[in-house]
Amino acid sequence: MFSKKISLGIVFFISVYMLKAQSYEGLLTDNYSGVHGIISNPANIADSRLKLDINLISASAFFGNDYLGVDLGNAFNDFNKTFDEAKTTPKENNFLVANVDILGPSAMFTLSEKHSVGVYTRGRLFLNVDDINGTTIDKEGGFDENEDFFIDEGNISGALNLWTEIGATYARVLADGGEHFLKGGLTLKYLTGIHHIYIDGSEVSIDHNAAANEVTTNGTLTYGTDTQGDKNYGRSTGFGTDLGFVYEWRPDHEDQQLVNMDGEPISNRGVNKYKLKFGASISDIGSINNHRSTEDTYDLNKTQSTDNFDGLELDDALDNNFDAISSLEKSSKSVLPTALHANVDWNINSTFYLNLNSDISLKGKNNINTQHIHNQVSLTPRLETAWLSIYSPFSVMNGAGFRWGAGLRAGPFFLGSGSILTSLFGQSKSLDAYAGVKVPIYQSKLRDKDKDGLKDDVDHCPETPGPIENNGCPWKDTDGDGILDKDDNCPSEAGPEENNGCPWKDTDGDGVLDKDDDCPNEPGNKEHNGCPDTDGDGIIDKDDRCPKNPGSMEHKGCPDTDGDTLVDIDDECPNVAGPISNNGCPEVTKEVQKQLNEYAKTILFDTGKASIKSESISMIVDIIQILNEYPNAKFTVEGHTDSVGSNESNQRLSEARANSVRDLLINEGISGSRLTAIGYGEEKPIASNTTKLGRKQNRRVEINLIK
C-alpha cells in the first residue's frame, strides 16, 4: 500500500540527515595514533613518535538525531523501555545521523628526521537529508493507511554516498627553529564510488484519503542514482585531497636536544617536545564523477489510487506513477564533505594532555548530492604514554547536543566512543563506537644518563658527565689543585680556584699575600688580614655596614641615634625611637586613633560645602601634631554625610570634604603619600538620621590608620 511504501519511504529518507561525527574521537588527539593521524591532519605523521605504524583493520560508526533521545541504561534492564520511554522532540527541521568509516590495510613510515609518508585504504558511507518535518512522524515512525493523514515536507534534499579511498600522504618538517617548530602534510586520494542516491524536492506534500483510497501529491522531486546493472553498477571515480599544518611551541627544546660525537644536534624523536601544539587542516577537497547514472525530475502534482504504489520501491513508484519533467543520462557528481579542522593540544606534564578541537563544515547542507559535516567542538583530556593512552572526550555537536565519551589505546589494540558515557547515564541523541588493531613500531628514546648532552651510545663515560671535546669524559687535573687543566692558568703548579689555579700574588702591595689577604685588591693592615678600616671602629670595611660612620660590633659598625636597637640605615624614623616591628617608628595606638577621630569629628564645614570653617583650624593643628609624631604611618581621610538629599549629592559632598581636609594637611607639611581621601556619603551612619542630633553626628570626618 502507499502508506507502507511511498509515505514511509519518503519519511525515512527525509528523517536521515548525515552528520559526520569525527571518526575515532579521542584516538586522533593521541601523538601515538600513527597512520590514523592522517585522517584529521596529514601533517601529523611528520616528526612522528612512530617509525612505522601498520593498521590491520579499524572501523568507526556513528548514529545521532535530534528527534529521539534514549537512555541505553534501560537496555540492561528492559530493552523495550529503551524506546518506549524515549523522549521525542518533533520539529519542522529534525534530523537523524549515521556514519561509517572503515580503515583497511594502511601504513605510515618515518623516512628521516624531516620526512614521512603514508598510504591507506578506506571505505566510507555518508547519508544525509536536511530539514525533516518531524511533526508529521508519530511515535511508531509510520502512518495508518486506514486513516487520513497529511504530510507537508516542503523543500527537501538528501544524499547517500558509499565510496572507497586509496590515499598517499607526504609530510615533512618545514621549519625547526628550536623553540618554534612547523610541519606540513598533503594527502592525495583516488576515489571509487560504490553507490549513490540523492533527492531534491520542492514544496512536497502528501494527502492520503482513506475513505476514497486515494492519495494526492504535490511538488516536484529530483531523483538521481546509479544505473542498476551487473556491469554498470557503481562505475564512478574521482580525486580528493587533504592539506594540513602543525605548529609546536617548544620552550624546553634545549633540555631535549642531544648531540653526537661531532657535536651535531640529534633530535630525541621518541619523546614529545612541545608545550603547546596548534593544528589546522582542510579535509575532503574533491568530488566523484558519477558515470553510468541517471537523474530524473518528476511532477508530483497528481491524485491517484493508493493501490498504484503497492509493492513498489521509491524509484519504481516514481517511474510508474509520475511524469518526468526532465531526464539526464548522468547524475550530479558526489561532492565530498569539505571541512576545516583546528585544534590546540596542551602538554600539561610528561604524560597528561588537554586537547581542544573544532570541526567546521565548508559545504552548504542543501546543495544537490553534496555531503557535509556538522560543526562540532570537543575538549579531550588524556593520559598518554607509548604503550597506553586513556582519553575522555567532551563535545558539543550542532543539533546533537552534549556528548561525553571514553577511549583506550593499549599497544596494538584500541577502542572507544565519543558518546558512550552520555548514552549510559542519561538521555542521549547519539551513539558511536570505534575499534581496531594495528602494529606500532615506536621511535627509540635516546638516553643520557649523566645528563651531559651526549647520548649514551657514543659517550665514553656514560655514567660521568664530561664535555663533548673530551668524548663525554671529565677533564684531567695535572697539578691536583682541583681545577681542570682546561680552566687552570697554571696547570703544572697548584693554586687556588680564586686565582685561576695559580699561586697568590700581593696584588694590592700591602705586604699581605693574596692567599692570606682577605682584601687582596685593597691595601690594609696585617692585624685586619690585609683589609682597611676607614672609620676606625675596629670593624673592617668589607664587614662594616657603615664603613664611614663609627658604630658598634653589635650593630655591624652602624650607629643607632635614637637607641631603639634599629640602626639608622634601617630605621625609617632614626630620630624617634620605635619598635623593630614598625621599622623603628612609633606605633599608632588605639588611644591615639581615638584622639585623632575626636579631633576630626569636630572639623566644621560651611553648610552644603567642602570649605572648612576657620574655627576648626585649632583642631587641624592638633591633628597635624599627632601625624608628625608617627612619620611612617598612613591614614585614610574619610568623609560622611547624613541622609538629607540624594545619594549622589551626598556622595559628592563626602568626597569633596575628605579631599578638602587631605589638601589642608598636605599644605601643612604632611606627605601626600601618607593620606588617602575617601567619601562614603550616607553609607556609614553612626547614629539615626531621623533626629537632628543623629544627623549632626553623621556629618563628620574620620581619620583612620591604614593597617
Question: Please, could you describe this protein's structure?
Answer:
The chain contains ten helices and 29 strands. The chain is mostly beta strands and 707 residues long. It has three domains: 2-442, Porin (Beta Barrel); 535-582, no CATH class; 590-705, 2-Layer Sandwich (60s Ribosomal Protein L30, Chain: A). It has a 22-stranded antiparallel sheet that branches. Strands 28-27-29 form a three-stranded mixed sheet. A two-stranded antiparallel sheet has the order 2-3. A hairpin with a 3-residue loop joins strand 20 and strand 21 (388-391). Helix 7 packs antiparallel against helix 8 (617-629). Residues 1-21 and 229-234 have low confidence and may be disordered.
List the helices and strands and how they pair.
Blueprint: H1 2-15, H2 37-40, E1 50-65, E2 68-69, H3 79-84, E3 87-88, E4 96-103, E5 106-110, E6 115-130, E7 149-176, E8 180-209, E9 214-226, E10 236-249, H4 253-256, E11 257-259, E12 265-267, E13 276-290, E14 293-299, E15 302-305, H5 314-321, E16 323-328, E17 334-335, E18 339-347, E19 352-361, E20 376-384, E21 388-391, E22 394-397, E23 401-404, E24 406-410, E25 413-417, H6 420-425, E26 430-442, H7 590-600, H8 617-629, E27 635-640, H9 647-667, E28 675-679, H10 692-698, E29 700-705
Parallel strand pairs: 27-28
Antiparallel strand pairs: 1-4, 1-5, 1-26, 2-3, 4-6, 5-6, 6-7, 7-8, 8-9, 8-10, 9-14, 9-15, 10-13, 11-12, 13-17, 13-18, 14-16, 18-19, 19-20, 20-21, 20-22, 21-24, 22-23, 24-25, 25-26, 27-29
Helix pairs in contact: 7-8
